[in-house]
Amino acid sequence: MLPPKDNIYPILDKYLPPLNEGDILLITSKIVSIHQGRCVKIEAAGNKDDLIKKEADSYIDRVKCPGGYVVLTIKGHTLAASAGIDESNANGHYVFWPEKINETAAEICAYLKKKNKLKKMAVIITDSRSTPLRYGAVGVAIGFYGLEPLRDYRGTEDIFGRKLRMSRSNIVDSLSSAAVLVMGEGAEKIPLVIARGVKPVKFTNRHTYKDLIIPIKEDIYYPLLKEFYKREQK
Length: 234
Prior knowledge:
The chain is an alpha+beta fold. The chain is built from 7 helices and 11 strands. The chain has helices spanning about 10-15, 30-35, 50-55, 100-115, 170-185, 220-225, 230-234, and strands at about 25-30, 40, 60, 70-75, 80, 95, 120-130, 135-145, 150, 170, 190-195. Strand 4 and strand 5 form a beta hairpin.
C-alpha cells in the first residue's frame, strides 16, 4: 500500500487466508487512509500544526505540552496526539486518519462476508496512541462494524455475590491493543490481524459505535479533559 492512494481490496484478496465464521479482522488505519487517498506530500502540506488543528475536534497547543513535542487533540471521541496525522512508514507523506471510518469498516465487512460466505464477522480499524501516566504505545479502535463494543456486567454478580453496578468490558479497544502489539510500531509490515475464537463477542448487523461513547461531561475524567473544551465554553 503506497501513498498517496492505493486500493485495499487486492491486498485483502491476496494476503488474507479464508475467514471463518466469527472471525474479527483488525486493520491498521494507515492502509485504510491510503486506500482513501488521505495523504499529502510533506513539502506541499504547509504548516503541520495548522493541519492538525484543522483535523482535530479539539486541541491543546504544543506550547502547553512538555517538550513541545505534539499538539494534543481529541478526534473522533479519541484522545490522540496530532489528530492522528502520521509520517512514519509514509514515504514522504503526511497520512491523515480515514474519513467515515465506521462506514468504511462496514463496506469491508460486507465484502468479506460475501466473499467467504459468512453470517457473522466484524471489522475493527485500529491506531496506536500513548496512554497518560505510561510509556509506550497501545492500540485503540477508531472505528468498527459488526460487533457489540461492550460486554455489560451490570446487574450480574461477582464471585462473592455482590451485584455489579457499573462494570463494562471494552471489547473493541482490548482487541485493538492485542492486534497492535502484533502489528508493531516499526518495519514489521503487518497491517492485518485476525482475532479468532473470541468468546465474549456478540455479532450484529447494525452500527454500534455510538454505544461506546460517553458524553463528555459524564466522563469521570472530565475534570482533566475539560481543558480541551475551554474555547467552546467561552
